[in-house]
Amino acid sequence: MEIKVIVGDIAQIEADAIVVNLFEGVEQPGGATAAVDKALSGAISSLIGRGEIKGKFGEVSIIHTLGKLPARIVTIAGLGKRQDFNVDKIRGVAGEFCRALRKLNCRKIATILHGASIGDIELEASTEAIAEGALLGLYNFTKYKKPEYEDIEEMLIVVREREKVPILESAIGKGKTVALATNLARDMVNEPANYMTPSQMAEIAKEIASKYNLEFKVFGREDMEAMGMGALLGVAKGSNQPPKLITLSYKGDKHSEKTLGFLGKGITFDSGGISIKASEGMDEMKDDMAGAAAVMTAVGAIAQLKPKINVTAVIPATENLPSGTALKPGDVLKAMNGKTIEVISTDAEGRLILADALSYAVKQGLSPLIDLATLTGACRVALGTLYSGLFGNDQDLVNKVLEATERTGERMWQMPMPEEYKEQNKSEIANVKNTGNRHGGAITAALFLAEFVANIPWVHIDIAGTAFSAKESGYIVKGATGVGVRTLVELALSEAKSQEAI
Ligand code: BES
Ligand code: MN
Ligand code: ZN
User: Fold this and answer.
1) Is there a single domain that holds both residue 482 and residue 450?
2) For residue range 10-49, what is the model confidence (pLDDT) as tens digits?
3) Which residue's CA is the closest to the ligand 1 atom numbered 6?
4) Which residue's alpha carbon is at the smallest distance from atom 7 of ligand 1?
5) Which of 152, 116, 126, 125 is nearest to 137 (CA)?
6) How far does residue 376's CA lie from ligand 1's centre (Å)?
């Protein structure tokens, strides 16, 4: 879908549909909604009066103009309660009205800027959110099945003042870049594991690298052996697919030694291995590379937005399968940093491959480190599907990530990392073991990872609950969510800005 800015009066736009809005509880609409209401001889206010249009968040009301206006349809998008309104609501509203209008066979739609004059929401933020929400909300995975509805081809954002056009255009550009990167991550996660193998992940990383001029490296089994990556190799033992360690580097600040490290868990299918999972719902375990997909596409988006900063993504990728050569419970592995790990459950494989990826990142001098991983079912139990779990060894870095999430709407909740729980990861025969007991499973997993980050500032984001959605709502659709991409991009942009200020 193309997104353009035009100067004019929304009521006079020729399109399949025009979109205005309404806050919940407002009886007499103002602004553009009032102008359209007038052109429709009061149809909107009369529907509000009858209680048909309420302005509830996510509500999309349709009025057919029957020739009264150049547009075929007038859409009233509910913004919800005024006091609850924020930038993320704008994304959600855009996602909802776009999907509704696609169902009504609209090819060209026009919208006002929602919320740009409300509270402290800036023009850019509102524009970016509409572009982002629309592209995210319209996403569908179409590789193996034709979509039910045809695409909306064009969305016009209508403003009255010509001088605002350049600001809006650049905001659309940013929103589009970030949304398309998120949608690419969604594609990768929605792809079944018979296609999205570690080798295929490396192929995609290579394509991103050549498209945006990034440095790309891929290491295979022999390289891993040479580097001492016994934990990653251990997980890979059960599979016929060769494991890959992939890196993608963006160098936006050639004069700085400092490079931010983004790590993503890349289990292209998690059967559990010998500690095999129950078969019900196992198909969802194709999403176990959502962290990897997010860090890869985030670096691609960063390369397009060109902040003055260096970023390297590190992705350990392998399948986790049972076989005659597979890793077994009780086996002891040695990670790249020299620590020995007793494998209690082969299903706690994410922390094993991340142990080597983190050791590698530390050795490469990357700092700070942010890892994204569909790591524990326990995190989903603790926080549900709206919040990712956030852990860290450096409160400044934790705060920076949390601040970035406030702008992106990707909700995260900081979890504790008490020393006392380290007890659970103690092994009789090795430096650590890879599972604790049933209690605090997301936390003991984070404490395990902490063993491999040395003293580098680090944040771990457990996206087991948030990577995949069972329902559609706002700009989230069924299937992969692409969680993390937007926050990582935002973090890189804000880090670059704060460096500049020094
Ligand atoms: N990939 C899973 C975690 C997961 C569960 C992601 C549900 C998405 C939805 C991970 O590798 C795993 O299997 N974790 C185990 C750890 C346990 C064996 C300590 C789990 O959560 O059960
Ligand atoms: Mn597992
Ligand atoms: Zn897993």
Assistant:
1) yes
2) 999 999 999 999 999 999 999 999 999 999 999 999 999 9
3) 464
4) 377
5) 152
6) 4
